[in-house]
Design goal:
This protein is α/β, with parallel strands linked by helices and about 240 residues long. It has one domain: Carbamate kinase (3-Layer(aba) Sandwich). It has eight helices and eleven strands. The protein has helices spanning about 25-40, 60, 70-95, 115-125, 140-150, 185-190, 200-205, 220-225, and strands at about 5-10, 45-50, 100, 110, 125-130, 155-160, 165, 180, 180-185, 210-215, 235. Strands 4-3-5-2-1-6-10-11-9 form a nine-stranded mixed sheet, sandwiched between helices. A two-stranded antiparallel ribbon has the order 7-8. α1 packs across α3 and α5 (about 140-150) runs parallel beside α7. It is globular, with a radius of gyration of 17 Å. The protein starts with 6 loop residues before the first strand and ends with a strand.
């Protein structure tokens, strides 16, 4: 059976790289993600990745320090570049060809983001890591993921989290919370469920770009999704 997706955008949070340390980058988590990505790469799927920077710095935290929001957001963008370089190195250690593309020019570190070049890299079988968000303050890396997924025409956004899908309430706080296997964009908005920030979510809704929310920490979940198995919650 053919895989359901030919091109995917994987959204990873910066916090997902922390592991048990609560800060920074855990080498074991890098290996975990690199091996999962290698497994799906071997199926022939084209892979783009957007990674956050919350394990190092969050723009919203800056305001409490007296740093203007815009400046804080730029600091957060630089944090995503650090994570991207780390993920790139980890992927190359397992034999995956990659390209790091930044929305803010850092020519000694990454290629500048150019949509056509990114698509060409994907067509050549390279894993493309998008960093520095959208290149603009006031936009989250979720918004960057939605934007890039639409620009490269990804079949789906795979949002890796620490929970196994979308629930009617926070499953860590409400034992009666129920999981959704499938939910529409309109239902998410009506129920006020927090999947992505509204800018990102609206961009996906308006362009009919489906989202799968799943537990990225559970080994083989990513491969199961690529193989067409039902994992997590499908939004669309």
């Amino acid at each position: 059976m053919a895989a359901p997706f030919k091109r995917i955008l994987l959204k990873l949070s910066g916090e997902s790289l922390m592991g048990k340390d609560g800060y920074g980058i855990d080498p074991e988590m890098l290996k975990h993600y690199a091996n999962q990505i290698k497994d799906i790469k071997e199926t022939g799927v084209q892979i783009a990745i957007v990674i956050g920077g919350g394990n190092i710095f969050r723009g919203l935290q800056a305001e409490a320090s007296g740093i203007p929001r815009a400046q804080g957001d730029y600091m957060g963008m630089v944090a995503t570049v650090i994570n991207g370089v780390a993920l790139q190195s980890s992927l190359e250690n397992v034999g995956i060809y990659t390209r790091l593309m930044s929305a803010i020019e850092m020519r000694q570190i990454a290629e500048p983001y150019i949509r056509r070049r990114a698509v060409r890299h994907l067509q050549k079988g390279r894993v493309v890591i998008f960093v520095a968000g959208t290149g603009n303050p006031y936009f989250t890396t979720d918004s960057a993921a939605a934007l890039r997924a639409n620009e490269i025409n990804a079949d789906v956004i795979l949002k890796g989290t620490r929970v196994d899908g979308i629930y009617s309430a926070d499953p860590e706080k409400d034992p009666n919370a129920t999981k959704f296997d499938h939910i529409s964009f309109d239902e998410v908005i009506r129920l006020g469920l927090n999947i992505m920030d509204m800018t990102a979510f609206t961009l996906c809704k308006e362009n009919s770009r489906p989202i799968i929310v799943f537990d990225i920490n559970k080994k083989e979940n990513l491969l199961k999704i690529i193989n067409g198995e039902k994992v997590g919650t499908f939004v669309g």
